[in-house]
Amino acid sequence: MKTSTTAEAILNATIDLFRELGFNGTSMRDIVKASKTTAGSVYHFFPSGKDELTVEVIKHAGPMYQSIIETLLDDAADLTEGVYSVYEQAAYTLADTNYLDPCPIGGIAREVASIKPELRFAIAVVFSAWVQATQERLANARIEPEVAEDIAVTMVASIEGGFTLARTHRSAEPLLSIGRSMQSLVGSQLIRQGC
Amino acid sequence: MKTSTTAEAILNATIDLFRELGFNGTSMRDIVKASKTTAGSVYHFFPSGKDELTVEVIKHAGPMYQSIIETLLDDAADLTEGVYSVYEQAAYTLADTNYLDPCPIGGIAREVASIKPELRFAIAVVFSAWVQATQERLANARIEPEVAEDIAVTMVASIEGGFTLARTHRSAEPLLSIGRSMQSLVGSQLIRQGC
DNA sequence: TCTCCACTTGAACGATCGTTCTATTCTCCA
DNA sequence: TGGAGAATAGAACGATCGTTCAAGTGGAGA
Lengths: 195, 195
Known about the structure:
The structure is a homodimer. Chain A is mostly helical. Chain A is 79% helix and 0% strand. Chain A is built from 9 helices and no strands. Chain A is elongated and about 60 Å long. The structure holds a DNA duplex.
């Protein structure tokens, strides 16, 4: 499967713009300009227009962030350190990009959840996959499955909400605060299990 | 201080529309129509236009949600039940409104943080007040101040992120999951303090 | 060499955006 | 009762929105 360089440029430019300006705040002309293509090319590769392009953005960015989370959790010395490192990594990335949102998906979710079902469905798939990947790793560390799922949902939500706070304050501190809390929460469940 | 009924109608209509469609997804014509006024009246009460109106929305909605959180935390039998009740209340409100976002502020924050500093500042004030109100109540229950602040930040972030998940899945479950996790986290800190 | 089609180009379409404007009506105190 | 300012009304402005379209370009197979 050969993927066009032009289509990739459009996709990547759109991701960057959505992170900064959101779905409704990004125009097709912005995308054309940032990807250094033309309107015709964008509609050649994404014939149904902005919504189709956005679905592809979600399908492209979702697994990308998931693999980052998985790697951080799997490579850490222990699970609680892995949990903290997720927030730490998010905080560093945010600060490095002048508080550009590292993840465009949560923003799209809030903007279009009410009126664009096909985008909402695509995002639901991504969120579910993130939760499941996290839940599996918590359960593998012998946290009860139901508790692990609650914590996994809490992690995904607090990452998304943490971006909102960190961007608003232009500070990495909120994400690090959340990282400490979540590390403590996971730690307390591991101890409970150990008794 | 007498507040015009028209200005209040505009404000309330704008809050409702922002909750459903976000900042960029809501047009001034939508606001005119929903508030049953005219463009002239909107610009009479908010001469600087949409941005000024949005600042007033933030200043109006922020304390409203804060007082709900404060009441729920203060009226509960104990702190951990109060923490859970915050998420429970959010979940019920969300479900009752057909998964209309209970809070428009987080959405605005993500949409405009990069390009509208005065809106970002107004939201930062609101978020800080929420965190402080929550942190005080955790600290009053003898949780260490630094830990209390981490947890307070985590609560605000997970509420905002929880709305995103719940709206996307059209389900109250994510908020209840997060409520259980946060109740457990606060409980574990109270026990630690008790030893 | 010719043909064909994926791909590119950018002007143009109608709709809608935030905002402004002039005109009119209401309200309330001198 | 009359006058002034607050409030309402809605048409209109230029800009920009997502999208469409006709015209071209370029390279690979016959």
